[in-house]
Amino acid sequence: MRHIGIGLIGTGFMGKAHALAFRAAQAVLGDVPTARLELLCDTPAERARQMAGQFGFARATDDWRALVADPAVEIVSITTPNRMHCEMALAAIEAGKHVYCEKPMGLTLEEARAMAEAAAGADVRTMVGYNYVKNPTFIHAQKLVAEGAIGRPVHFRGVVDEDYQADPNLAWTWRARIEEAGLGALGDLGCHLVSMAHRLMGPVDSLIADMQTIHETRPLPEGAGHGRVENEDVASALVRFRSGAQGVLCTSRSAWGRKNRLDFEVHGTAGMIAFEQERMNELQLYRNEGPAGEQGFKTILTGPAHPPYAAFCPAPGHQLGFNDLKVLEAGAFLRHVAGGEKAGPDFAEALEFEKVIHAIAASARDGRRVTV
Ligand SMILES: NC(=O)c1ccc[n+]([C@@H]2O[C@H](COP(=O)([O-])OP(=O)(O)OC[C@H]3O[C@@H](n4cnc5c(N)ncnc54)[C@H](O)[C@@H]3O)[C@@H](O)[C@H]2O)c1
C-alpha cells in the first residue's frame, strides 16, 4: 500500500483533529494508504515546530505557500480561519495538490464557486470537513430512509444550536466581521445541518428565511467602547426540497445550554427517525406497525451492524466520538486519493450545501422566497 505525504496548515481545534485522524486512519481502517506526516504549518514558527513534535510531523514551517509548493506534500489540509480557505485551496490546486479543507469552503458563495470550479478543472481530489455525515449512526439513518423504512419522507426538521456567543459581555472578535468570518451561525453551524438534510432528503429547491443578530455590539478590549456585530446569531428557514418534501432548518450560536445540539427528525408516511448529535451513538426509530398498544419509539444503539463502526470496536454500544468521525473522513479521503471510490463531500457537493446557507441569508435580507 502506498504512502501519501500530508501537509497540514493550522494546529488549533481542527488542526489537531486532522493530525490525529491522519495518524489513526490506517491503523483503524486497514484498507487505506499510510499518511506520511511531512510538513506542518502555523504561525509563529516556534508554535509550528512545537506542534510538529507533538503531532509527529517530520518538518515545520510558518509559510503556507512553502507547504503548498513542497514536493513531498500530496494532500494539503486547510484548518485555518474561514477567510484563508479560498486563497490556500486555489494555490494548492494550482500546485496540483489534493485538498482537504475545513468547512465552510469560503467567506462567500463566489469563493466557494471559484474553489469548486478550480477543482473541477484540475486533476486533483477534494474533501470538505462535513464530518457529521461520516457517523455510522447517520449512515444507518440514510439507509433506513432510502429503503423506505419510514415510508415516503415528507418533512425534515433540523436544529443546530450552540451557546458560544450567548453571553452579551463576551468580547468582540474578528468572528463578528463579515469580511473576516463571512456568515455567522449559518457558516459555523447551519452548514453542517444542511449537509445532513441534503444527504437524507436530497437537494433544497427553494426557501424563505429570517435571521437576527441578538447581540448587536460587543465590548472591545481594554475598555475601547463597543464593536458592531455584522453577522447573524440566529437564522431560521422554511425549505422545500426538490422531492416535494418540506422542511424547517434553525440555527443559533446564542442558545444558552446547547453545546453541540445538531438534531433532526425525518417524518415519513409510515414512521419517523430522530437523531441528536449530543447522543451521537443512538437513533430513534418509530414504525407504524404492531398492535396499537405496543407502538412506540425504538432506540437503536450503534454497533458493528452499522458500518464502519466495527473498524473501531467489535462490541455494540461502546460508542464513537467526534474525533472518530475525522478518522473516517481522513480515511475516506486517503482511499480516494489513492484511486478508490469518492466518499465526499468534495468541493462540488459542498458547494450545494453552501448555496443553501447563502440562500437563507439572501432570503432573510431581502424578505422573499429564494430558489437555490
Ligand atoms: N468540521 C467541524 O466540525 C469544525 C469544527 C470547528 C471548526 N471548524 C472549521 O475549522 C476552521 C478552523 O477552526 P478552528 O476552530 O480549528 O480554529 P482555531 O483558531 O482553533 O485554529 C486556527 C489555526 O490556524 C492557524 N493560522 C492562522 N493563520 C495562519 C497562517 N497565516 N498560516 C498558518 N496557520 C495559520 C492558527 O494559528 C491556528 O492554529 C474554521 O474554518 C472552522 O469553521 C470545523
Structural write-up:
With 372 residues, this protein is of the alpha/beta class. Helices cover 33% and strands 25% of the residues. It has 10 helices and 17 strands. Strands 16-15-14-13-7-12-11-8-17 form a 9-stranded mixed β-sheet. Strands 3-2-1-4-5-6 form a 6-stranded parallel β-sheet, sandwiched between helices. α2 links the parallel β2 and β3 (59-61). α5 runs antiparallel to α10 and α8 crosses α10 (347-366). Bound molecules: nicotinamide-adenine-dinucleotide (NAD). The site of nicotinamide-adenine-dinucleotide has 20 residues, from α1.
Per the CATH scheme, the topology name of the largest domain is: Dihydrodipicolinate Reductase, domain 2
Beta-strand fraction estimate: 25-35%
Q: Which CATH class of the largest domain applies here? A: Alpha Beta
**What small ligands are held by the chains?**
nicotinamide-adenine-dinucleotide
Number of strands: 17
Q: Rough shape?
A: globular
Number of helices: 10
- Measured distance between first and last alpha carbons: 42 Å
**Helix content, binned percent:** 25-40%
For the record, the CATH architecture of the largest domain stands as 2-Layer Sandwich
Count of separate structural domains: 2
Main sheet makeup: 9 strands, mixed
Give me the CATH superfamily of the largest domain.
Dihydrodipicolinate Reductase, domain 2
Low-confidence stretches: none
Sequence of strands across the biggest β-sheet:
16-15-14-13-7-12-11-8-17
